[in-house]
Design brief:
Blueprint lengths: L1 E2 L7 E2 L20 H9 L4 E2 L1 E2 L3 E7 L3 E2 L10 E2 L2 H11 L3 E8 L3 H12 L4 E5 L4 H12 L4 E6 L3 E2 L5 E5 L2 E6 L3 H19 L13 E6 L3 E2 L5 E10 L5 E5 L7 H5 L3 E5 L5 E2 L4 E5 L2
Parallel strand pairs: 2-3, 5-8, 5-9, 6-7, 9-13, 11-16, 14-17
Antiparallel strand pairs: 1-4, 10-12, 12-13, 14-20, 15-19, 16-17, 16-18, 18-20
Helix pairs in contact: 2-5, 3-4
Length: 283
């Protein structure tokens, strides 16, 4: 529930000065329990809020089957629909499942147009092959102006990401790999949902859940991209927070299951050294 404008008897425009001259609740902040209590103390029983944005979630791929199904030969369960829905819910949105579309341009376009008609944004996860990713970008480009804005990000995991706006509706094409899709959902989809829900970006952006920690072991990287490395967090006897990379393939979802956070390696670094303080992102 996000703060917005309101009017009428016993209704406060959130962000408006109360009699004391102080702002009761700033505009663009998700209402907390304390905010509700403060408004009640002022006799304010109704406030205007921004509706939770509806985010359509579409999976694609001839090999993808529902998570409840038993995969056959060359088939995989749909992991992304569930993880993306969880990210959307945690960011304050309403996930709208749209099922699984095959790797067929006409079928995918039809499914996307239906999703666009019923949502404030669309998030789809494409297959892992280059040809399927190109298919996704080509179809999204036909959905409305201006179309595809970005095809590929300088991050790992998550490079094959598509960002688009189709006649005013944001469309995010995530990689098919579950771990890559989840990292991009944390970094891009969650802030998008919060923006659509009316939250305002402050001077620190949307990374209020970032912190820093002492790195216990070296981390290798490649300049020119921002790397996100899964890590476990723990405090030592003096209360200092330490980050230890979670070893495992970067494309496996269970690497993230065992992690507490992500170490962010700047794109201009070739790695991080043990003992230095590093930027840590809490999902």
């Amino acid at each position: 529930m996000l703060a917005a404008a309101a009017c009428g008897e016993n209704v406060l425009t959130v962000g408006e000065d109360v009699r004391s001259g102080a702002v009761a609740v700033p505009v663009g902040r998700r209402l907390r329990a304390a905010d509700v209590g403060g408004l009640a103390a002022l006799g304010i029983t109704r406030v205007g809020v921004v509706a939770r944005p509806r985010i359509a979630i579409l999976s694609t791929g001839d090999e993808v089957v529902p998570a409840s199904a038993v995969p056959g030969p060359a088939q995989v369960r749909d992991v992304n629909a569930g993880t993306i829905a969880a990210v959307v819910s945690q960011a304050g949105g309403v996930p709208v499942p749209r099922g699984i579309a095959p790797d067929d341009a006409a079928a995918l376009e039809g499914a996307l147009r239906e999703a666009l008609a019923d949502a404030d944004a669309v998030v789809l996860s494409a297959g892992s092959s280059v040809s399927v990713r190109d298919l996704t970008a080509d179809v999204v480009a036909r959905l409305g102006a201006p179309g595809v804005l970005v095809h590929g990000l300088a991050i790992k995991p998550g490079k094959p990401t598509v960002l688009a706006v189709c006649d005013g509706t944001p469309v995010v094409g995530l990689p098919g790999n579950p771990a890559s899709a989840l990292v991009v959902a944390w970094r891009i989809v969650a802030p998008l949902v919060r923006l659509l829900g009316g939250e305002r970006i402050d001077d620190e952006g949307f990374d209020a859940r970032e912190t820093s920690a002492v790195l216990d072991v070296p981390v290798q990287s490649r300049p020119g991209r921002e790397d996100f490395v899964a890590c476990a967090l723990a405090r030592d006897g003096e209360g200092v927070l330490h980050a230890t990379p979670v070893f495992g393939s970067s494309n496996l979802i269970f690497t993230l299951v065992r992690a507490d956070a992500l170490i962010a390696v700047p794109l201009d670094r070739s790695g991080l050294t043990a003992g230095e303080r590093v930027r840590v992102i809490l999902p």
